[in-house]
């Protein structure tokens, strides 16, 4: 009787522990909602003057104002939108393109695998950051151009990952049994092979968000992002570095926002990894 009473309690504890392990996903979702709803969440217009220039943080402007008098909190909220959402877009494009290439390479094999792997290795050995900067500079500064340039060199890592997972799964007994049973190649790929790569793909993509955020911030910091007065976090910090001593909040607040975004993404990725490892 005691054992019977204990089993539901243990089940509830297990579910509570798994839910607790995913708590970093809550701020991740919150940041995404802030990015989507940024135009409606800003207390002031991020592009217009709303106070005195160089006003320190107070109750009217919680993060102070910039050199023109624009509210820093409003500009940082819009900066989250201009950094977070493009980062998610780059991850989606890279993971999608890498899954197509890696899936075809691992499932088809033969000469197709050889050709696709040589192309993938070519992109991997190139200095991706420098070439992405060159592509962005050629296309012209801007968020879309930065997304295109980074995505071009981001997909090979997902391609290698998906290929490795599919090749390992293809050797398993249940896939061999399905193949002997006459399952068609397309159904075999969709039903058995590609799902085996999804957990690792999700973990890698989640952990990559922080790296992409830092990369985008670096691009805007060196002037390859949106032109002024767009409130990109990296560009805001770069333009205000000369005021670090006298008006510290101008470069520090955007940099702190970048740190929070990257730190939150890392926590979420680690939580997802632990959750999938426990399954």
Question: Could you say which overall geometry the principal axes of the C-alpha atoms support?
Answer: elongated
By helix and strand content, what is the structural category?
Answer: mainly alpha
> What share of residues is helical?
over 70%
**CATH uppermost class:** Mainly Alpha
Strand content: under 5%
Output the helix-strand order.
Answer: HHHHHHHHHHHH
Which value, in Å, is the CA radius of gyration? 23 Å
Number of contiguous helices: 12
- Count of separate structural domains: 1
The CATH homologous superfamily name equals MetI-like
User: Per CATH, what is the topology?
Assistant: MetI-like fold
| Sheet with the most strands, sense and barrel status | none
Count of DSSP E strands?
0
Low-confidence stretches: none
What report would you give on this structure?
The chain has 279 residues and is mostly helical. The protein has helices at residues 2-21, 25-36, 38-41, 72-108, 110-125, 128-139, 143-152, 155-170, 173-180, 185-221, 233-240, 249-278. The model has no long low-confidence stretch (mean pLDDT 83).
